[in-house]
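Problem: given the chain below (136 residues), write out its structure.
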Amino acid sequence: MQRVDPKTNKVIATIKVGTTPRFISSGLGAVWTLNQDDGTITKIDPSTNTTVTIHADIKGSGGDITVGNTFVYVRAKKTMLSIIDPKSNKVIKRYGPSSGSGAVCVENGRVWITAHDINTVWILKEDLPPTRSRAH
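Solution.
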């Protein structure tokens, strides 16, 4: 990951993340990458350029990552949705079954998860604790 000064267009920092960081999102005070080859998530503190590696066990192609108001949501090919607590830097909930490729986004307190391989969309309420959330 490279940090670029928008005024000078010069690289001001190079930050090491996991292998093959294909997806990126920002929020909750950090920048987040989904690293496909090693199945990790990298959390980057933009004020210090330091990182935390979250071992999410979501290796493989495809996926998506987004940040909501409370949690980080990761969509992967083999795991439909993993929810990461940004305070503990751990996966705290997973949803399945595996459903192929898709995306995840958060809007108005809802987490939208797609699976274009099976033409399906699931919606979760973001404001519920993940142990009580249910796919609809």
